[in-house]
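Tutorial handout. Part one gives the primary structure; part two gives the three-dimensional structure as tokens.
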Amino acid sequence: MRYYPLGVSVIARFIPLLLTLGVIHGQEVTVHHIMQAICQVETGCVWIAPGKVKGKWTTGSYREVSPWQLAPAVITDLRASVRRVRSDCQYAEDCVLRWLCVLQQRGLDLRQVAAAYHRGYTGRTKPEAKEYAERVVSLAERLAREGK
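Part two.
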């Protein structure tokens, strides 16, 4: 597995992810739409722009942190700081992008990426993971249609 340092040019390292999300039901769904959808499904917060999240979030029942509810194990796998993810929204965004990229590089399609984000790579085939993925992808499609 390849690790990338966090930084301001994070988006440049994720061009393959951006290009492969593609078109779903006639709507171009970008990583921006997926990140917005995950944030809303996980915590009800609205991700407006890099570093800007509207709403309150708390630590999840399994100690997940940030508006995207990243699991501590994922943060550790990314060699990131749990404390910084908890306190720095932009750093958390970078971690989410990195994790989505890692999942996508494993050959998963968009629904499988969303399911693996929720239940882990090996848990992506579980019914609750598939249900979560449908909610995320449906919301991402709607956001793409609305031009948000």
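Part three, for discussion. The longest strand covers residues 46-49. Residues 1-12, 15-20 have pLDDT under 50 and may be disordered.
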